[in-house]
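Example record for the data management plan.
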Amino acid sequence: MTTMSRRRPKEKKKANAEDEVSRNTGQTPNEKCPAMTFDEYQCSGNVEIDFPGLCALLDMKDLPAVSTKQPASSTTESEGGVTEESESQIDAVSSWSKPCLQVELENEDPISAKSLKVSGWKVDESTARVLQKMLPSLNKLQSLHFWQAGLTDQMIISLANTISLCSNLRTVTVEGNPLPERSFHILLSENSMLTHLSLRNNQIGDEGARLIGSALSTLSSANKSLLSLNLAFNSIGDAGAEYIAQGLRLNCALLILSLSNNQIGDAGAAHLAAILGEFALTHEEVVERRKLLLERTQSLSTRVDSNPSPASQLPSVPSSTSLSVSKGEGRGKKNIMCKEPLKKEEKPPAKSNKKSNLCDKSNTSITEQVEAVEIVNPLLDQSVQRRDGELILPGNATLTSLNLAGNRITEKPLPLFLKSVEMQGDEGGLLRLCLQRNRFPPDCEIYVKIKELMALRDPLNKNTEPTEEEGQGA
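Corresponding structural encoding:
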């Protein structure tokens, strides 16, 4: 009796799969389906059906198993005390040593896959082709994880194109996957809607950091959606850190950046510290600013000519001072110096703590927050000052967390970090700065001052000691 009860959940899954096939093909399970090509296959959104079905159409051998994790709330007890969840866990354990596509469902519906994970097995060209066709049909998919999956540069390029077709996919992890051409920057394109990207342990190096820095921002383009970027364990040195710092000059979206456990020394750290405080615009940036000002003036003139209105109603570029959150209103709110105010008819995003926004599992709310405001080039910020013949920008006040733990930084650049953080004051900027496990003593006077200052700025965590997460390069 017990043996029969253990088999029933699998038999139920098989029956459901047969019913799904019947609905898709219009035939009963006993009828022979007509020949179908890979391109003709219509994905149902059920990974347990679509993945093996597509693999079979490509005549793939030794197909990776599909392990589905049911949500805890959907656990139902079967006869003999065996649950469907425990049955799926038994299947997962038995297939751990074999290639396995791990699927996490949002609810009991088999087409509610919210997370896919490929861990520790190589994705070949055929498998990549199957994933590319299947992913857009997963309407609930929020995160995609690859760990030591052997992805190639071309696969990353194809993946980026596929991601653009996935309406709710916002989190991508590609770790332990070096690429000869270092094409990871493709995932940070200007039109990308990803909000969280982890690229740990990919041997990105300085050249890869250059490409990523350019993807974060240049004079003519900038990523407007990415909120967190993890570049830990990537052999990035001083030159790479300088490229990343350059990309942060005009980036107004990124909130969390980890460069922990790399090879960054004093020179690279100094460049990162410099963009946190005031910095002078380069000649190229000054020229671009003049160009943007001219275009804005011409645009406003055209609007006035076509639709005369009182001068008080003309749109204006907000300053970081006018839009920043005062200390009385609560630390931890995002400084939106690079974003236009909402129009009257638009619904403002819900107010919440800056870090809780990053941990919010709802991709819908993240999308609304990203799309609710219009990113404005910081070169047009009204708080730009003229000083000693130079134009001075207030600095990047959007970044809230910078992790530089486990690098090669000595005491030399610490005064620059202290000065930049003090300069940011209460108008936004860093809430967390991790500098543990570098080449200066923990009781260094300036480092102690930095920790004390950051403890006052961080509204969620007064503990300045390194966490286990930071130690692992998160």
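Summary line stored alongside the record: The mean pLDDT is 78.
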